[in-house]
Amino acid sequence: MYELIAKVFSKHGILFKNIIGSSFDGAANMQGQYNGLRSHIKTENKNSVYIWCYAHILNLCVCDICGNVAALSLFGLLNRLATFFSDSYKRMNVWKEIQENLGTGQKKMRRLQKIGATRWWSREKALKWLFEGDDCLFPLIINALHFVATSKTFDPKTTSEAISLKDKLINCVNIIL
Questions:
Q1: How far apart are the first and last CA of the chain?
Q2: Burial 56-66 (b: 16+ CB within 10 A, else e)
Q3: Per-residue 3-state assignment (H helix, E strand, C coil) for the chain
Q4: Helices 138-150 & 120-131, crossing angle to 10 degrees?
Q5: Cα dihedral angle (131, 83, 112, 168), rounded to 10 degrees?
Q6: Which InterPro entries does the record match to this protein (predicted)?
């Protein structure tokens, strides 16, 4: 990694000896004491200062806060809902048809937000899309899951999963309210 960065920096006239400060995440290849980019910069400029990236610190804090059982369960459910529809063309078509039939139309076609392990904004986005505002996705999801659960065109495993997801989502909303 160091060689690649050194090559790019050199191409643009940036010398490691002129770097007075750096900020990145805590990954070993970046801030490692002996072989990380930080150590290579320090070798060239002893006065260079390194600080953790505050966005990454905030992300770690949010991830820790969201680490309780109820939050993990909720975000796990939201991720399962997103993958349930996106992992199958047939289920994705149901999702699209439900949106078209309930008035969101093709212009505003929305997918459920998958939740990234290190992207705290994806949790907020998933919650907002599901529960917030007049165009929240909650009624659409319930309708789509109900359709999959009662349709004879889906296999028993898919039907069972749709019933389970619908029940868990409704139970989750009852707990929140």
A1: 49
A2: eeebeebeeee
A3: CHHHHHHHHHHCCCCHHHCCEEEECCCHHHHCCCCCHHHHHHHHCCCCEEEECHHHHHHHHHHHHCCCHHHHHHHHHHHHHHHHHHCCHHHHHHHHHHHHHCCCCCCCCCCCCCCCCCCHHHHHHHHHHHHCCCCCCHHHHHHHHHHHHHCCCCCHHHHHHHHHHHHHHHHHHHHHC
A4: 80
A5: -10
A6: RNaseH-like_sf
Sign of CA dihedral 117, 120, 125, 128: positive
* pTM exceeds 0.85, yes or no: no
Instruction: Please write the tens of the pLDDT for every residue from 73-124.
Output: 888 888 899 899 989 999 999 998 888 887 654 456 677 777 776 666 777 7
Question: Which of these, 147, 26, 41, lies nearest to 92 by C-alpha position?
Answer: 147
CA distance linking residue 146 with residue 121, whole number of Å: 29
Q: Is 118 exposed, middle or buried (0-12, 13-18, 19+ CB in 10 A)?
A: exposed
Q: How far apart are CA 42 and CA 37, in angstroms?
A: 9
